[in-house]
Amino acid sequence: MPLYIRDDLTADLVARLAKERGMTKQDAVRMAVQAELDRARDAKPLSERMREWRAAHPLPPPTGLRADKAFFDDLSGESG
Asked: For 16-54, what is each residue's pLDDT tens digit?
């Protein structure tokens, strides 16, 4: 079944990709669509990526120190 691309910008992008890769426009479209399908299949949800990042970079243990206004004033060089 034929695929008609009626958008000039899309047609130009396909032609450019085909020329740069030395392939037909049909192969360029197939390669681009397959690459996007592969990317979507392999994509991890943000919640999973964050869970992995947090496991690799855990928070330091609590110090028991109180971070109140006086603490932050001292950090900024202000006397309270």
From this structure: 999 999 999 999 999 999 999 999 998 999 999 999 999
Q: Is residue 13 part of a domain?
A: yes
Cβ-based neighbours of 21, under 8 Å, separated by 6 or more = 27, 28, 31
Q: Count the domains in the chain.
A: 1
Please, what is the end-to-end C-alpha distance for the chain in angstroms? 77
Query: Nearest 10 degrees: CA dihedral of 32, 37, 38, 40?
Result: 120
Establish if 71 belongs to a structural domain.
Answer: no
Residue 28's CB is within 10 A of a number of other CB atoms, namely 20
Residue 52 forms part of a structural domain: yes
pTM of the model: 0.57
**CA 76/CA 39 separation, integer angstroms:** 46
